Amino acid sequence: MAMREIRVLPDPVLRTPCDEITTVDDRVRALVDDLVDTVDADGRAGLAANQIGVNLRAFSWNVDDEIGYVLNPRIVDLSEETQDGDEGCLSVPGLWYPTTRAWYARVEGTDLDGNEVVVEGTELMARCLQHECDHLDGKLYLDRLERSARKKAMRELRERL
């Protein structure tokens, strides 16, 4: 178990869709330990495996004093009702931009023992679930910004690199 370094843009692993986990072995168990340890810090709501350089479909969350993980997550339900609010990302440090997300989200996947895991929530939890599933598909919240906000964010990002 270890607190892992967070990969930041322009690291290509962040733009690469992650592979399904087909076998739970010692490597996957260590990954889950690292995801849980690394997300357990102030200001961290979620962490996808590719954010620590591992190209597998898994993420951890830390919302409302609850820490958990899910393997091979997939979004199975989103509300039509939306929420707006500033969103940030550990892999894009220091940038916060208004991002529209579904107000409610439900994710299904499995745990290390192959049992079904259902994670659902509203507001921050819903935002987290959508954000982390995007990461596993090789997408960043910046991709969801309205055109003018995305242009401003990319300019700000280029100035920092």
How large a portion of the residues is in β-strands, by DSSP E?
25-35%
Q: From the 3D coordinates, which CATH architecture would you assign? A: Alpha-Beta Complex
SSE string, helices as H and strands as E: HEEEEEEEHH
Which structural category fits the helices and strands? Answer: alpha+beta
By CATH's scheme, which homologous superfamily applies? Answer: Peptide deformylase
Characterise this structure.
By secondary structure, the chain is of the alpha+beta class. 32% of the residues are buried. It has a single domain, classed as Peptide deformylase (Peptide Deformylase, Alpha-Beta Complex), CATH 3.90.45. The longest helix has 14 residues, at 26-39. The chain has helices at 26-39, 123-136, 147-160; strands spanning 46-48, 58-63, 66-78, 82-89, 92-102, 104-110, 116-122. The strands form 2 sheets. It has a 5-stranded antiparallel β-sheet. Strands 4-5 form a two-stranded antiparallel ribbon. It is globular, with a radius of gyration of 15 Å. The chain is built from 3 helices and 7 strands.
Set out the fold topology.
Blueprint (H helix, E strand, L loop, with lengths): L25 H14 L6 E3 L9 E6 L2 E13 L3 E8 L2 E11 L1 E7 L5 E7 H14 L10 H14 L1
Antiparallel strand pairs: 1-2, 2-3, 3-6, 4-5, 6-7
Report a brief summary of the structure.
The chain has 161 residues and is an alpha+beta fold.
Keyword list:
single chain; 161 residues; Peptide Deformylase; five-stranded antiparallel beta sheet; two-stranded antiparallel sheet; globular
